[in-house]
Every structure is written in C-alpha cells, then in structure tokens.
Amino acid sequence: MRLLLTWLINAAALMALPYLMHSVTVDNVGAALVAALVLGLVNTIIRPLLVVLTLPVTVVSLGLFILVINALLFWLVAHLVGGFHVAGFWSAFLAAILYSVISWALSTLLLNKDGNP
C-alpha cells in the first residue's frame, strides 16, 4: 500500500511541475504515472551505479555532482516516456530539484512517521 501511495505522490509531483516551470510538460495523468514509475526504476537501478562510478568527482565537488546525475536521469526519463517533455539539461536540473522538494513535502504530509498512510 505504501509503495502505491508513494508512486501516486511522485506522479502528483510530476503533474505539479508544469505549473512551476514552463519548460516541463506532462500531457496527461497517464504520462505522469508512467514517468513516475520509470523514474523510480531508473533511480533504483541506474542511479546507484552512476553514483559509484562518479564517486571521485562527487567527492571533489562535495556532493554537488549528485545533482547533475539527478538532472541527467530526469532528462533521460523525459526522452524515454512519451507525453513527458523537458526542454533541456538546465530545465531538467531545476525540475529534478523541484520534483524532489514537492515529492518530499507531499510524502511528509500524507505519510505517517511509520510510513503508513
């Protein structure tokens, strides 16, 4: 149940992005649901590998390179999922940050401390 609610929260965060940034578009709720699912899978499978491979750069940049990785993965998902579009890298960079903040805020409001709705 928690996984389903987290997926819906992430889709809602994706649906909110076009209202905050004109360079991000989500055509419909279905595209947001698919993009949230693909983004979750990419963050679960590919992101850890990229973090390990870029560890020296991440250490030198004091962890700021993680934001670049997040932006690249966000941009990748926008290229993979139809109906979800991001204008460019810098749009993906800002959108990934906003997406994280919105998703965190909604999760904090809707989920209890123990992770249940």
UniProtKB/TrEMBL annotation:
InterPro entries: Phage_holin_4_2. It comes from the Bacteria. Keywords: Membrane, Transmembrane, Transmembrane helix. The chain crosses the membrane at residues 28-46, 53-77, 89-111. Pfam families: Phage_holin_4_2. The keyword Transmembrane applies. This is Phage holin family protein. It comes from Massilia cellulosiltytica. The lineage of its organism: Bacteria, Pseudomonadati, Pseudomonadota, Betaproteobacteria, Burkholderiales.
